[in-house]
Structure to design on (547 residues):
C-alpha cells in the first residue's frame, strides 16, 4: 500500500499543481508523448472539467463578466478550493464566498461586489432545482369563507404556513431584475437593495422579486409543516399577497 | 479468437437487458412526452452521482423511466483503487438509491478519483501491480458485501502508464474478477482509446478478458487530438471501434450494450441510429456464423 499511496500522492499533487516534476520517474513516455505530456493531459482535463462546471452553474455571471474575467475568477477558485465531494454539484457551493473574499475592500454595493451577489443568486437556482419541492404536496382545500382576505388576515380560516426546502431567500445590495431577464446579454444591475425569492413549482425554477416585508415573513417561517405558523394577525398586505406566494411555491398552507 | 456459446456463459446471475443508452437531461422532454413503448431502447444507464442528494426533476424522470424499463446505476466516484479509505457515507447513499430504484446492477470504474478528501472527478489510472490487485480486490469484496450485490467494474480510458506496472490491464481485470466474483463492463471505446494512446494491441486486450465475467459493453465516440485520443463521449462511435465491438461480441455476446453520449448531445433519434449500427454489426456476425 505504501507504494500505491506514494504514487497517488505524487499524481494528485501533479494534477492539482499542474506540474510535471517527477513524471519521468513514474510515467512511461514515448516518441509521441513524454511523461510530462501525459501528466499534462490529466492536469488540463481537471481544470477544464471544473471550469465547465462553473460556467454551467453560473451562466449569467459568465455572460456579464465576459469569458476572460469569468475564467480568471474560476481558475482562482479551482486553485483555492479543490472539489471535496463525490458530486460535482457541490463544487460551486463556495464560489460566491470565494468571490466575496477575493474582491477589494469596499461598500456592499460597490461594483466589485456584483460577481459575488450574482453568484449567490445563481447558486440558489441550482440548489432549488435539486431540493425537495412541493410537487407531491396536496392542493390546499378551497376557501369556504365569504371573504377569504379577511379570513386570512385574522386567521379565521385556521390556516398555517410553512416554507418548503425548494425556496431560497436573498437580501441583496443590487437589483438583478433586468440582469436575470436577459441571460444572453445581461445588463449591469442597479445598485439598490432588493429581495429575491428563488422557488420551484412543477419543477420550474424562477426568481421572484419580493418586498422586504414579504422577505421577513417568509424568512420567519419554519421549513417543516409540523411547525407551520399563521399569518401575522391583521396584516392585510401579506393576506392579499398570499395567493401569489402559494401559487409561486413560496409557502405551503396547512389547515 | 475463440467463439463462446453466449447462452451458456455464467453472468453472475444478471440478465441481458438488450440495447440501452445513458439517461441524460437533454432527453428528458422527449422521454416524458413519448410513450415508453416508442422510446426505442430496452434500458437506461443512469449516472449514480446525478441522483444522490437530488430531489428534483431528474428523480421524477428516473421514477418514470424505471417504472417502464430496467435501469442500471453507473458511478464515477467510488474510487475503488484509491489508497484513501472507502467513503462509507457515499456507499450508504448508493445502497439506499439502489434499494429504491432496483437497478439491474451497479457499476463503476477500475480507477481512483482522489486522496485526502479531494475528488479530481477524473478516472485516474492505477499502477497495475500485485500490490494494487490485492488492494482493489479487498475493497471490491467489502463494497460487494456492503451493497449486497456484485459490483461491475469498467476498464477506463487512460493517457499514461506507470513504469511500476507489471500486469497488463486485461489480465489485472481478469484476475480481479476471478478473485472477487465481480462483473466486468467492457468499454470497447476505452480499449480503443487506451490501446491507441499506449501503442497496445486492442484485439489482444479483448481476447485477454474473461468473457464469463463481462455483463455489459459500452460504445462511445472519443476525440482525436493527433498524438492521442481522449474519451470525450461527444461524437458517433468511430469506424475503428466497430470491429472491436464485433470481436468482443463474438467472444462475450449476447451481453447488454450501451451507447454513451455525454457532450454535444444530439437528438434522441441519433442515439437510436448508433444502436441500429450496433445491431447491424451483430446481425453480420450472426450471418457469418451461419455461413460458417
Amino acid at each position: 500500500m505504501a507504494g500505491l499511496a506514494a504514487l497517488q500522492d505524487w499524481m494528485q499533487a501533479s494534477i492539482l499543481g499542474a506540474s510535471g516534476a517527477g513524471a519521468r520517474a513514474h510515467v512511461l513516455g514515448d516518441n509521441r508523448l513524454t511523461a510530462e505530456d501525459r501528466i499534462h493531459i490529466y492536469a488540463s482535463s481537471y481544470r477544464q472539467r471544473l471550469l465547465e462546471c462553473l460556467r454551467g452553474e453560473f451562466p449569467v455571471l459568465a455572460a456579464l463578466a465576459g469569458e476572460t474575467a469569468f475564467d480568471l475568477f474560476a481558475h482562482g477558485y479551482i486553485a483555492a478550493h479543490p472539489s471535496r465531494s463525490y458530486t460535482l454539484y457541490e463544487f460551486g457551493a463556495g464560489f460566491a464566498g470565494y468571490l466575496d473574499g477575493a474582491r477589494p475592500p469596499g461598500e456592499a454595493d460597490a461594483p466589485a461586489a456584483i460577481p459575488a451577489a450574482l453568484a449567490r443568486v445563481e447558486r440558489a437556482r441550482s440548489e432549488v432545482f435539486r431540493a425537495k419541492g412541493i410537487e407531491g404536496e396536496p392542493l390546499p382545500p378551497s376557501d369556504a369563507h365569504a371573504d377569504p382576505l379577511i379570513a386570512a388576515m385574522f386567521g379565521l380560516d385556521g390556516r398555517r404556513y410553512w416554507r418548503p426546502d425548494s425556496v431560497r431567500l436573498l437580501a441583496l445590495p443590487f437589483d438583478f431584475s433586468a440582469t436575470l431577464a436577459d441571460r444572453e446579454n445581461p445588463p449591469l444591475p442597479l445598485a439598490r437593495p432588493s429581495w429575491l425569492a428563488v422557488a420551484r413549482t412543477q419543477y420550474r425554477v424562477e426568481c421572484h422579486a419580493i418586498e422586504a416585508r414579504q422577505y421577513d415573513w417568509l424568512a420567519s417561517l419554519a421549513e417543516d409543516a409540523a411547525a407551520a405558523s399563521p399569518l401575522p394577525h391583521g396584516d392585510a398586505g401579506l393576506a392579499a399577497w398570499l395567493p401569489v406566494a402559494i401559487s409561486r411555491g413560496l409557502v405551503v398552507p396547512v389547515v | 479468437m475463440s467463439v463462446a456459446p453466449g447462452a451458456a456463459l455464467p453472468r453472475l446471475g444478471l440478465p441481458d437487458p438488450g440495447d440501452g443508452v445513458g439517461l441524460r437531461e437533454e432527453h428528458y422532454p422527449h422521454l416524458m412526452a413519448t410513450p415508453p413503448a416508442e422510446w426505442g431502447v430496452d434500458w437506461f444507464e443512469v449516472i449514480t452521482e446525478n441522483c444522490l442528494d437530488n430531489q428534483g426533476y431528474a428523480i421524477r424522470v428516473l421514477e418514470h423511466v424505471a417504472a417502464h424499463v430496467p435501469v442500471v446505476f453507473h458511478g464515477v466516484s467510488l474510487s475503488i483503487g484509491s489508497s484513501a479509505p472507502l467513503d462509507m457515507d457515499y456507499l450508504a447513499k448508493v445502497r439506499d438509491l439502489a434499494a429504491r430504484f432496483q437497478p439491474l446492477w451497479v457499476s463503476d470504474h477500475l480507477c481512483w478519483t482522489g486522496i485526502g478528501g479531494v475528488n479530481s472527478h477524473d478516472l485516474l489510472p492505477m499502477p497495475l501491480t500485485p500490490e494494487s490487485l490485492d488492494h482493489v480486490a479487498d475493497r471490491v469484496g467489502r463494497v460487494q458485501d456492503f451493497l449486497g450485490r456484485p459490483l461491475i467494474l469498467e476498464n477506463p480510458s487512460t493517457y499514461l502508464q506507470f513504469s511500476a506496472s507489471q500486469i497488463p490491464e486485461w489480465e489485472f481485470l481478469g484476475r480481479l474478477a476471478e478473485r472477487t466474483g465481480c462483473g466486468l463492463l467492457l468499454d470497447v471505446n476505452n480499449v480503443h482509446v487506451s490501446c491507441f494512446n499506449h501503442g497496445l494491441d486492442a484485439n489482444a486486450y479483448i481476447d485477454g478478458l474473461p468473457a464469463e465475467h463481462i455483463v455489459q459493453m459500452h460504445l462511445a465516440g472519443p476525440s482525436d487530438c493527433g498524438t492521442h485520443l481522449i474519451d470525450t463521449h461527444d461524437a458517433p462511435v468511430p469506424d475503428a471501434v466497430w470491429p472491436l465491438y464485433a470481436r468482443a461480441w463474438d467472444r462475450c455476446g449476447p451481453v447488454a450494450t450501451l451507447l454513451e453520449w455525454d457532450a454535444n448531445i444530439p437528438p434522441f433519434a441519433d442515439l437510436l441510429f448508433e444502436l441500429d449500427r450496433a445491431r447491424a454489426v451483430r446481425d453480420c456476425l450472426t450471418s457469418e456464423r451461419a455461413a460458417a
Summary: The longest strand of chain A covers residues 194-201. Chain A has a mean pLDDT of 94.
